[in-house]
Structures are given as C-alpha cells and as structure tokens.
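P.,

For your records, the input lines for the assembly:
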Amino acid sequence: MPRLARYLPILDWGRAYSGTALTNDLVAAGIVTIMLIPQSLAYAMLAGLPPEVGLYASILPIVAYALFGTSRALAVGPVAVISLMTLTAASSVAPPGSAEFIAAALVLALLSGLILLLMGVLKLGFLANLLSHPVVSGFITASGIIIATSQLKAIFGISASGEAMPELVETLLANLPDTNLPTLVIGVLSTAFLFWVRKGLKPVLIRAGLQPRPADLVAKAGPIAAVAAATLAVVVFDLERQGVRVVGSIPQNLPPLTVPLFDPRLWQQLAIPALLLSIIGFVESVSVAQTLAAKKRQRIDPDQELIGLGAANVAASFSGGYPVTGGFARSVVNFDAGAETPAAGAFTAVGIAIAALFLTPLLYALPLATLAATIIVAVLSLVDLKTPRTIWRYSRADFAAMAATIAVTLLLGVEPGVIAGVGLSLALYLWRSSRPHAAIVGRVPETGHFRNVKRHKVLTDPCVLTIRIDESLTYLNARWLEEFVLETVADYPEAKHLVLMASAVNSIDASALESLEAINHRLADGGIKLHLSEVKGPVMDRLQRSSFLEELSGEVFLSQDEAFSSLIKRSENEVPPQRDDLWLARGLI
Amino acid sequence: MPRLARYLPILDWGRAYSGTALTNDLVAAGIVTIMLIPQSLAYAMLAGLPPEVGLYASILPIVAYALFGTSRALAVGPVAVISLMTLTAASSVAPPGSAEFIAAALVLALLSGLILLLMGVLKLGFLANLLSHPVVSGFITASGIIIATSQLKAIFGISASGEAMPELVETLLANLPDTNLPTLVIGVLSTAFLFWVRKGLKPVLIRAGLQPRPADLVAKAGPIAAVAAATLAVVVFDLERQGVRVVGSIPQNLPPLTVPLFDPRLWQQLAIPALLLSIIGFVESVSVAQTLAAKKRQRIDPDQELIGLGAANVAASFSGGYPVTGGFARSVVNFDAGAETPAAGAFTAVGIAIAALFLTPLLYALPLATLAATIIVAVLSLVDLKTPRTIWRYSRADFAAMAATIAVTLLLGVEPGVIAGVGLSLALYLWRSSRPHAAIVGRVPETGHFRNVKRHKVLTDPCVLTIRIDESLTYLNARWLEEFVLETVADYPEAKHLVLMASAVNSIDASALESLEAINHRLADGGIKLHLSEVKGPVMDRLQRSSFLEELSGEVFLSQDEAFSSLIKRSENEVPPQRDDLWLARGLI
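Structure tokens returned:
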C-alpha cells in the first residue's frame, strides 16, 4: 500500500468508486439518517447536553472518520456508554446543561481526539489490550443498567441524579410521588411499542409479504413511528400544558465553529476521564469494525482506526459536538442497509445537516419520555447475562475481574469501574506471572517424551532430577524460581544432577539470569550440577552474551532425552554421594 | 512447623538456645554496637533528624525484629537509602529539623510498618517482584551518588540542599566560598583514613600477626578510631570556636514513648512515599537476609520477613525513631562476628540503650564532617558500575529500565526514580507480552521434532500449516493472536489445515479463548480446519469446561508428529481446494 494511502484510506477506495457503490451508499445513508436523528438527540440529552449537540456530533465527525478510518461500514457518532462517561466527567467540573458543562464536553472531545491521534501515531494501540474481554463486557453491562435506570426519570416525568446506582435509585424513589401521569403513559407506551418493534414487527412485515431484509430494515426504522405518534399526541391533546416535557426549540443551523477552551487546570482535571473514555470508545469501535470487516473479508488497521477516531473527535470539538466513537447499532444498520464505502458516512452527514437546518421545528413537541424509551430499549440489549455464566465456568480469575468491574461500576460509577477492572486484571495477571507452573518430569516408558510425574506413569532416577519450567523467566518470577528450585532439590537428597527443561521458556530477562546464576552457585555448593535442556534458539543466542554458560556447573543438552540418558549413565559411574553432600543438598533450602 | 512458631520464630530458635550460642551472640552484639553508634547518628542526620533519633531507631526496632523476623543474622536499623527517602518524604511536609518534620518521620515509620504488616498478613510479598534487579541496582547506585554528594556540604562546612543532583550541585557550588578550612581538613582526613581502613588496614593487621577473621573485624570497627581522633582534635584545639560544627548535646535517656499523629491529611500525603520506602526497604533487606541465610544453609520466609520488618517499623514509630530496615553492612558484620540467633540483635539493642543513657556526652564534640565521611565511604560502595555494563550486553530492555531509573533518580529524586523504574519495567513487560514469539514450524527430516522454518531445514506441506505459539495466551496478546494467525493463513493460500502447536502455551484465559473461537469461525468460513496439538494437561482440562472443543472445526492431537502425518494423509485424499476456497483463504486477512 502506498504510504499516503495508508494514512488516507480514502485514496484507496475513492479511486475505484462506482455507480453501484454510489446507489448502495445513498440508500444506506438514508436509512441511517432516519435512525440517527432521534438517537442523536437522545444520547446528547443522556450526556446532559442540549439535544442539538447530538446532531452536531453526527455531522463533521462522520466526515473526518470517512477520510481517515479504515472500516467501510463503521458509523461514527454519539453512543450510549460514551455519553454516560461524558456526563460523569463533565459533571465533575460544572452542573449539567450549564455553559461550562458544554465547554467541558468540547474539551473532552478535543483531549480524547488528541489522545487517540497520539496513540495512533506512536502505535500505542496495544494499550487497549489492558482491557480484557471480561472487563469490557462487564463494564458495558453495568453501564447499560445505569443508563436504563437513569432514563426512568424521563419516563416518570420526575427528576433524579447520580452517577452510580445507589444515588440514582435513591433520588428516583424519593421523587416518585411527583410522577406526571400523562408522561408516564407516553413513556410506558413508547417503551412497549419499541420493544415490540424490536422483536415482533419483522415477523408481521414478513407475513405481510415483505422480504426478510427490507422487513428487517423497516423494523430498524420503527422508532421513527413512535417519535411521530408521540409528537402528534402531544400536539393534538396539548399535553405540554399538562406537564409533559418536550424537546423544545432547537436552533436551526449548521454546526457552529467552536474553539475548545485552553485552560491547563481544566485539561488536567479532564485528562484521566478523557483517557478512559478514549480507550473504551476505541475498544468498542474496533470490535464492531472487526466484526463487520470479517463478514466481508475486509481488513481494518487498528493503529489507523486510532487516527480515524481521533480525527472524528477533534472534528467534534471544533463543531459544537462532544466525544464520539463507532456505534454498534448504527454500524450494523449501515452494514445491513448495504453501505459499501465510507462515502455512505459522508452522505449520512449531509442528511443530518439537512435535518439540523430544516427539520428541527418538527421535533419541538417530541416528548422526552419517548426519547428515554428509545435509549432504554437500545441499552438493555447491551446488558449481557450469558457471558458472566460462560466465564464463571471457564475461569474464576476472569470472572472475578468481570464481577469487580460490574460491582464497582454500579456502585461507584463508570470511571472507578474501568479503573478497577483494568487494575484487577493486571494484578491477577502479574500474580499469576509471579508463580508460574512448573513440574518434575520423567520419561514416558519406551519413548523420548517427558511428562509431569504427578499426571503420568513415568520413569525417574533418584540421581537425575528434571524440572520443566512452563513459563518465560522474567523479573516477576525470578524470586519464585530460586525458591522453587532450591526447595525441590531439598526434597530429593540423592540428586546429583538437576536438569532445567526449558522447552516452554521463551525468554530470560536480566533478573531471571541473575537468579539462574545464584541457583547455579548454590547448587554447586551443595555438590549438585545444574544442566539445561531444550533451550530455544533465541534464548540460547542471548545466554551466549552473558557469562552464565561459562560458569554453568553442568551442560546444555539439545534434547531432554539426551540429557536424561547421558546423565544417568554418568551418575552410575560416579562414586555414590557422601553423607556430607546429602546433608548439603537437604540443607540447601 | 507449628502454627504459632511460624509467626513467632523465637519459639523455634529460643527452645534450642545454648551457652555457646549465648557467647557468640554477645561477642557479635558488642562489635555491632560499636559500629552502630556513629552510623546511627550519621544516618539520622542524613535523614534531617536529630542524631539521637538514630540511636532510638536502633533499640526497640531491633528487639521487634528479633521476635518476628526469620533471618538469624539480619541487623535492623537506620540505613542510608531509607534515610534519604525519609528526608525526601518528610521534607514535602515540613522543613528538616522542625518538630513537624520529626513528627512526619514518626508517621512515615508507622505507615511503613502498617503497610509491611498488611502485605505480610495478605501474603503480598510478590508485589516486591515489581522491582526488577536492574531497577533496584540502578536505584541504589543513583541514591549512593546523591547521598555522597549531599554529604560534601558537611565536609566543606557549608550548607546545601536539594533532593536531586541538579539542585544539590548548584547549592554546593554557590556556597563553596563559605568553606570552613578546619572543617575541610577534618573532613578530608577522616574520609582518607576511612577509605584506607576499608582497604589497607586488614593486610597491616595480618602482617602484625592477627588471624584474617579478627583482622577483618577490627578493620570493620576502624571508624571508631576516626571518631575518637576527630573528637579529641576538636576538644584539644578548641575547633568548635573556629566554626567546626559538632554533634552537640544529645539528651541522655532511653527512647521516649511517642505516639504518631493521627492526621488523615498527613497520612494521605505520606502514603505513597511510605509505600515506596517500605518496598525498597523490604527488597533490600530480603536480599541481604537471603544471601546470609544461604551461606549457612538456613532459610528465610519472605512473607514472615514482612511481618518482622513491619513490627520493627511500628516499634520505631512508638519509640522516637524513624523508618528502618535490614542494613547490608551491619548485617554482614553481625554475621562475620559470629551471631547465631536473633538474640544477638537483642543484645545489640541493650548495647545501644546503654550508649544512649551514658555515652552521649562523649559524642558532644564529634565533628559532623567525620560523620559525613563515614556516610560517604559507606555509600560509595553501593555505587555499582559493573552491573550496567553486564546488563547492556545481555538485554537492551533491562538496560533501558535501569538507565531510566538512574537518570530519573539523579535528576528528579528518589520517588520519581523508583516510580519510573517500576513503570518502565512494567510497560516493557506488557509490551513484550502483547507481541509474543511464534513460528511456523516443519518436521526435522527423519525425526518427530518440529522446528522453526526460518532457523532450520525442515519439511513442510502446502496444505498443512503449523504455527507454534511460544507464550501463554492471555488478554494481553489475544488481539495479536487473531491478527497473526489470520495474516499467516493469508500467506499460504493452499492451506486446508491449520495446526496450532501449543507445547509452550501454559494457560489460555477467557479473552484468548474468545479469540480462539473467533479464529475457528473465521477459518471455517474460509474452508480451513483449525487443529490443536501438544496441548498441556491443565490447559486441556480447562478447555473442556468451555464449548470451544465442541465447536472446533478440526481435532486435538496429542503430538505434533501425529497431527502432521495424519493431516497430510487426509489432505491427499481430499479433492483439491476450489478456486473460491483459495480466494477465501487469501481474502481472510
């Protein structure tokens, strides 16, 4: 791939752009636009921002991603979890809805964009690895629960606040007596209708004679019907006067040019939230993009994705938006609707821009309860109760990380939740790395294979002890190595030769080398020779750069079989160990 | 070992205590006491504390360690590096020498004690693994340089301050014109004499007819001669009036009972420094204790050492002391002088207590320049210039961690230095873990061995591709695994079978399992079957708890040899791959 095209993927697909692709992209853009309008408003309000901010965040960021991103189907814009994280982060600076709050959201988008760009340029995408699958899954589930709960306030027409469940539930219950009945009716009906649209509409349409694919797409656009019906109900029955809260007037204009505040103190306050939000957004977006790319046997480049998402967020910060990323639902709709190139995204942007210019008056009477219903229905599909069960069966450690993420997110909020998940995963990983698996092995009779004496019937020799180390030797397990080897030797007082079988040792760092040297000297003091077997090529190359091999009391054998046979033969010819040697070996612990 | 004796090792050695042991312990205690008196004063003053605090820190903490520690020779008390860290930490709260500063040192000792006890009870000793050998070595070297430089102020009789080299050197140079000549003479003579004592006295004593061991011990006590001579010179020539600064009057009493302040804000400020100081102290102390224990084929228990050191620090905080740990020099003297049990420590405590009660008036005229000389001579032996060269040759990554630790410690101070070393080691480790080694392997002709196609002449088959993964599969490399496997397959368009040879895979976590499932499905879409070979017992046990093995498109083979042979046979009987399959395989990237 030419260098420039690597950083500007549009040069790649733009060259081969055809009439068919144009038609397909236009159709997909139309469908996504219809779906995005209510969703953008809803997510902006979830983030504590005026509704139009959601529309603005769906225009230029999409264009920026279309220029720099590598996924052909990813639809970038406001998403639920990032909106919740924006609310949390910006709330720490100013009350939601205030001018300072909106300014903080712009700064968050800018910081997030810069962080993503930096990670992309420095190829730091691997940092996203720190978020394990269980942690991400747990975090998304818990965020979905928090978001759905927070939207109940709009369904009941009451107020509630809080970044985590305890406060949310408490304020909801406290304000329950203020419930506005017409709002509740609209909210419940909208929610029920949307749930039905999700599951029940498609079969009805198919029975009515539609093909499955168009039926599916019509069903996806179903929320528009709820929006229209609810808006009409408010106008016809003059429900606004009865206390039903509506979207209200939205300015009719294209995204404004905004310049994020350069306030070092504010940047510092928002740096960590922006980092967390960027990484969560990146991980989510890449997994959506990878899933869709695999279906068409296309490829995405994670480092370039960082640049695409970074550009999208910078664009959001300069056009009155807030942090964005690739959304799952909208990307799937885009893909299913037949989007072939990122141009579909650009056309969507035009669609939303037209909506921002001309359609906003139609949204005046849209009840907030209906928007809340669209959010609730969307996020409840994020709540995944199957994965925790699968993970519990497979790995308790992974389950612990997931459970901690869910619990901390629910109880303390999204940022502590992510940090707890990453921290616990890392701590468990380091703990496991610090006590690796190792086994005393013996020869499987009649073969050259060596297996764990605890799991197999194998031949051993009292004079020749073999320990297979099942991990790379690093500073994290160097101390363990010393303790394990010297303790094991103490249990085999007749041993004259110790073989470390290194078939699973992929590297030895400087700390572990120092430990091997210490082991070599201490064993020699006890009259035991240290040997190595099955040392891998790269490990051996490196050992030759140290003085360890010269100091080694024993030898390095190519195969364990050779080591075992020749050492047994040798020890038979040697004099039996002295009493004193025995004592030494035992005393070595 | 009975449960109680595990936590109170004194029950173990106390029962077998004999007359010979008593004599040996008393002799060792006498020698260590003589050595400790000037050292304790010097280190307390290095830490910015009144000299008597050093004596107090050498009384009760030693007794506490004797009760709970597992090393028989470790001598606990003030040490150079921990004194420097105390100075740095307490200076951030109050100016050195002030009452608040002394109070902060007590709180540091208490926090450090509590942290160590907690780590001991929770068996968190493995956290000390985060400090790799290169990082510790670099940190000690850099600290030694800082300490030696800071002591030049006392040698020249001027003032200087700063936690890191730039400020230290700058203030030293600025104040150089104020040099006090008599002080400089005493300082230079003391330093020269002490260096000579260290290297040259022992041969002289041996030539005078002493046995090597007593000669060594007398040489170790040499500093006392310097102390006595310098004190005498000050008195005889009335140098105090000429501006030579002396220790001055030290209160004549046993350690006072002190109660560390309980001030949440202060505790919060000192928590991180206390943590760093505790871990550095623990790592240093354990490595001294392990070295000495190995020489007598004794054993120490690192988790119990945490409790011993924790108790010593709590004792320091309640008896007017400051943070302590096991010191290298004093422990070696204790060991060489023949200490047999921790009772030697208790006798040392009695010796120091007697000194604090009766000998302090003799120390009045001891010049600070001589104390500085004892520190300089002691810490310069910590500066290790050989290890960096060895490490450079062996591993650039380890060298980078060490160089960063040295540079940051020298330029910014001890706390940033430790954090930079630990952070960089961890980042390099995680980075390496995220892109492990893997190789395409083939059969070594006429054998059942399989080796890297790039390093060996081996047999391969275009239809049967084998990838050996040289690392455990974890969330850190799960994403790499997907990318690597799918890219490799794309390079071998004729492949119908992919074997993952798992001989070096010691575990597969939930994230990696999910990636394996994704690989399985994507390969199946491309008409390629996924097989595993040489899966280890524990890994297989765990895989059976998931649905992966049921969904696997291929098989699990016990040996790679079997996999290779039977898959080649099978693919010869199959129809050749369709054009379309080929395209799929190629398109899979």
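Two observations worth noting. The mean pLDDT of chain A is 87. The radius of gyration of chain A is 31 Å.

Regards
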